[in-house]
Amino acid sequence: MSDTTTTKVFLRGLQIAPRKVRVVIDQIRGKPVQEALDALQFITKLGAGPVRKLLDSAIANARFNHGMDVDALYIKTATVDQADMLKRWTPRAQGRATKILKKNSHVMLELGVK
Fold first, then answer.
1. If I label 52, which of 36, 78, 87, 107 is the partner at 20 to 30 A Cα–Cα?
2. How far apart are the C-alpha atoms of 103 and 14, rounded to whole Å?
3. pLDDT for 62-84, tens place per residue?
4. What is the pTM of this model?
5. How many CB atoms lie within 10 A of CB 105?
6. Which domains does the chain have, with CATH numbers?
């Protein structure tokens, strides 16, 4: 087992707009992992489910791959970036068409030890 002090996990191509996922991420950034899991359980936003699964994966990686103490973990860094957009068209009046941009997100969590 290595004794690293951080572990990173990525969720790429999440089909939720970044501004919607940032609302969830902003509520857990900097918190201990147990407190973040408790908060995610009661957040009713659509992005809370995938972020909780990502946090569970990060905790498992830290515990089994890096030998970190789970009780001492906290969310050191949490970012949401925009991924590729799906570009679609919808018909409008008088034969025109307008764009629909379906935005996707990249989420990154980094856990550290206090």
1. 87
2. 9
3. 999 999 999 999 999 999 999 99
4. 0.90
5. 23
6. 6-113 (3.90.470.10)
Structure tokens at 14: 């999440």
Tokens of 95: 């034969």
Question: Whose CA is closest to 78, among 35, 21, 38?
Answer: 21
Outline where 3-78 has alpha helix (H): 18-28, 33-42, 48-60
Instruction: For the chain, give the percent of residues with pLDDT over 90.
Output: 95
DSSP helix, strand, coil percent of the chain (3-state; round to 5): 40, 35, 25
Structure tokens belonging to residue 81: 């970036």
Q: What is the largest CA-CA distance in the chain?
A: 66
